[in-house]
Amino acid sequence: MKLAIYGYGNLGRGAEAAILKNPDMELFGIFTRRDPDTVRSNTGAKVLAAGDILKYKDEIDAVILCGGSATDLPALTPMLAMDFNVIDSFDTHANIPAHFDAVDAAAKAGNKLSLISCGWDPGMFSLNRLYANAILPDGRDYTFWGRGVSQGHSDAIRRIPGVLDARQYTVPIGDALDAVRSGRQPVLSARQKHLRECYVVAAPDADKSAIEQAIKTMPNYFADYDTTVTFISEDEMKEKHSALPHGGFVIRTGRTGLNDEHTHRIEYSLKLDSNPEFTAGVLVAFARAIGRMASRGETGCRTVFDIAPADLSPLSKEVLRRTML
Amino acid sequence: MKLAIYGYGNLGRGAEAAILKNPDMELFGIFTRRDPDTVRSNTGAKVLAAGDILKYKDEIDAVILCGGSATDLPALTPMLAMDFNVIDSFDTHANIPAHFDAVDAAAKAGNKLSLISCGWDPGMFSLNRLYANAILPDGRDYTFWGRGVSQGHSDAIRRIPGVLDARQYTVPIGDALDAVRSGRQPVLSARQKHLRECYVVAAPDADKSAIEQAIKTMPNYFADYDTTVTFISEDEMKEKHSALPHGGFVIRTGRTGLNDEHTHRIEYSLKLDSNPEFTAGVLVAFARAIGRMASRGETGCRTVFDIAPADLSPLSKEVLRRTML
Hints:
Two copies of one chain form a homodimer.
Chain A: E1 2-6, H1 10-20, E2 26-32, E3 47-49, E4 62-65, H2 73-81, E5 86-87, H3 96-109, E6 113-115, H4 124-135, E7 139-145, E8 148-149, H5 151-158, E9 163-172, H6 174-181, H7 190-193, E10 194-202, H8 208-216, E11 226-231, H9 234-240, E12 246-256, E13 262-272, H10 275-295, E14 300-302, H11 317-323
Parallel strand pairs in A: 1-2, 1-4, 2-3, 4-5, 5-6, 6-14, 10-11
Antiparallel strand pairs in A: 7-12, 8-9, 9-10, 12-13
Helix pairs in contact in A: 1-10, 2-3
């Protein structure tokens, strides 16, 4: 299968590395909106101009879109879905229905197949919520994120005047995890579930206490959480906070039995050294499925909920039954 | 959807309770090979003779087979698969390919749809192995079971002369779990991964040391493990060991990056108060999928690998995208 990567930031570089781990996959090339001559691929792959992608319509089995959810994907995915089988990681939960409809219409018009909102959340976490709800209908779901870098929260801090750089770690609170695991189904506030740890490089003349105040009172992002702010040097930021670890937990506890006498816990967790590389691994596996399903004549938009797991694997169904069932 | 239960032991009773937790499901009746007049349902459901099941062919959307893998299911599932959509929990891993072929042929001959080897292992654990392998192709899988009652091992002890009753707990070893979670990908022997804890009621005149010896040296079941044997009274067995808890862990760690520089861990775990009730919950969710897929005209045999997750949920795809993605 020939895959193309569209967008060459952290996620695009992760996809490039992930394709190399899958012998049935081949990287056709990397499409960039920058001048291709200024972009060097980590592996020597072809770098091509995003504006030229239609020229290669018949040579690419699927395109992995590695743009951002805020501004890139809402326009990009529907635009490309008419001419290519595309996979994106659109993660603005509230806008998924509208994004789905736009991509579905485009893909159907072009007789192509798309998958949106793939990765780990949305993605693998969503799948685990669905499976657990179907198995234990009488129960309660909990999702914890971290410990890991939230790009959105880091960016929000960077927009504060006087901030040169920032990194925000979302940290699940151990007591809350324990309470959830007990099966007692506690009701937990945002503050009870996660801490927000911020590391900030301030401009030399900046008012640090004003920055700290601006962070801690920022609505939606920080106001509802216990937040710590630590000012560090540019060197320390580079040395200790350059990695992009992440992870989290999806837990459902529920009751069964004629008198609800039995409690069960289903827990799925991820611990990731590199959020973009892991996300890219998920995208490449689902690209395999989308390529196969497209070659069976399917069209329109799908989500991870629509993909039979066997289609994700390079192994035949017979081998899967023999070795993994 | 109208479901029937075939076999009314622990699993059948679990399925009866699980159906009540799913408002879109209705229990048509329970089929038993015993005299139906001697079997009382826990919920007042109809109890019918197994031999009469064909009379109800047109009234049942799917049959959940609640027999044992050793002797019941190899004959039963193919027999019923020609006339009904059936779901079983066949768990003799080595014989899954042969069982699949037999059920597939029968279901195709009768234009029906079957699902075999559903539950948590095989079942949810298998799904997690598949997903994790697809996402992290360069890695290693580990499955741990327990702490929980192994019926097969308990039965094996009961066959030793002088044993009146026995319960065997499979116990995962914490140090092994920690080593796996570290991402170092250790190679672990059976003995390093699990302990076997046995509780035995001996006949008054039995030679306890001979029983202990017979257990600890039993090939396949115990010889390759560190095994503890504790003799207890019938009363203590009833009081402390009547429940059927179980659970376990599926863990895959793997590396990504152009230089394998990042390590990731995917972990799925279950902690179950009642193994049969949880297993039944899985069976009922997959029965929903099989009913839907059959009504779309699909025939033959399937496994959990072939089921798009959305088909397991009572919610529409639109609601799933809005609420769980």
